[in-house]
Amino acid sequence: MSKRKNRNMRAKKQNVRKCYCEGKCPNDMINGTCEIKQGGQCFTAVEEVWDPESRSVEYEYTYGCLPDDERGFMQCKGHLVPHQRGKSIECCDGYDQCNKDLKPHIEERTTTQAPSILDQGDSVPYIVFLASVTVCITVFLLVIACVYLRYRKKEDQRKRQYYIKRYPERYPNVEILPNGTLANFIEQSSGSGSGLPLLVQRTIAKQIQMVHSIGKGRYGEVWLARWRGERVAVKVFFTTEEQSWFRETEIYQTVLMRHDNILGFIAADIKGTGSWTQMLLITDYHEHGSLYDYLQNHVLDPSSLLVMALSMASGLSHLHTEIFGTRGKPAIAHRDVKSKNILVKRNGECAIADFGLSVKYLSDTNEIDVPPNERSGTKRYMSPEMLDKSININSFEAHKMADMYSLALVFWEMARRCVTGDKITTADDYALPYYDCVGSDPSFEDMLQVVCVKKIRPQIPLRWESEDVLQTLAKIMQECWHSNPAVRLTALRVKKTLSKLNTDTTIKIV
Known about the structure:
Layout: H1 2-14, E1 16-20, E2 33-37, E3 41-51, E4 56-66, E5 78-79, E6 87-92, H2 124-166, H3 182-188, H4 198-207, E7 209-216, E8 220-227, E9 230-237, H5 242-252, E10 265-272, E11 277-284, H6 291-297, H7 302-320, E12 331-333, E13 342-344, E14 350-352, E15 359-362, E16 367-368, H8 384-387, H9 396-416, H10 444-453, H11 468-480, H12 491-509
Antiparallel strand pairs: 1-2, 3-4, 3-6, 5-6, 7-8, 8-9, 9-11, 10-11, 12-15, 13-14, 15-16
């Protein structure tokens, strides 16, 4: 009985093989062995795995037992049925743990490329996360765009309402203008004293056809445009200069503002959609351009110089003067008088323009709306009291006297370009005031040193003494650019002096 039992045990052992297994083996054995009965196989499998960190393909090996009843699922024939990812398996049963020495080979595919991230099962959450983030960002940007467009639309409406409220419409709703010229429309509406009706202005602004740019300034770009065949100038303000547009439009809309020597105002309007806003100011067009440009290419004679100087004094006198009455005009200080802000008309006279820094004053209420910055205007033309900050910005007279200082410098620019005697003596080359003291773009400190500390003023040439006009202008300049504002002449006084000189000159010629 004992021998039979031993033979049965040996036969039983011969029918059992131990295989190497890795990971979780049968009977909860860890990295140990598993057993197969006759007909079973030990196996080693290899599979291509994409590593997203190293962005390369790695090979993953697995070991274990393949019972006889599972051999149909895993055929031990080398390379398995082609997959998107390479797999291969080899089997053995020759001796215990024979599969530990197996190295199955993965055949190369026709195209060797890294598996797509879409093929990796563990990448699905990552893809979902990316898609979710993309959708959220897109939705967020769309919401921001909608909010911004709505804001711009409301802002545009607010500006229009402010404009309408500040300049109330007293005329019927005119959307289609009848045939006529600008001069006719302005003449018909002159009773209001403040320009064309607001709705008429808007209609004109819609019908403007831009031709080409004719210059750029501190506040915007000026274009030559046409309205019903008539040439007009359109000043397009930069979006950052909204306050300048409001101020200049307000000054031009002032009652009784229209004057021959103030740039003729036609219309103002805000164009735009929810995404952009364009602020327009439409005025008369003068082909000679600014006095600054004109003087560089033209020489004056005494009579033409007198006409220009008298027209400037007349325009500034009209600005500075308050007209009393039911529909009176407030006094206005320009605060940026210079040759670039004065236009030359075809008849030889000048027109004052650019009122973005101007202030109005009403004597009955003693109100003046002055920005907090007392240094206004162009540094080269600033009066001594502005440069050293001694000006009383709440005094309207102080601003008028600052204008007179600047006007004196403009007179000097013109007088340099005037011939003397029998025209044998040529005019001086054009130059800006203080050209021999400071650079092309002087700082406040530069001008302060020259004007206030050293008390330098532009030079008066001896040749001016040979001409009555130049001699008179020289006296006016010296009084108007005096360091003490109280000593300076008023615009009305200058106008009267030049008017008398013009009358005397005319009588002599006759």
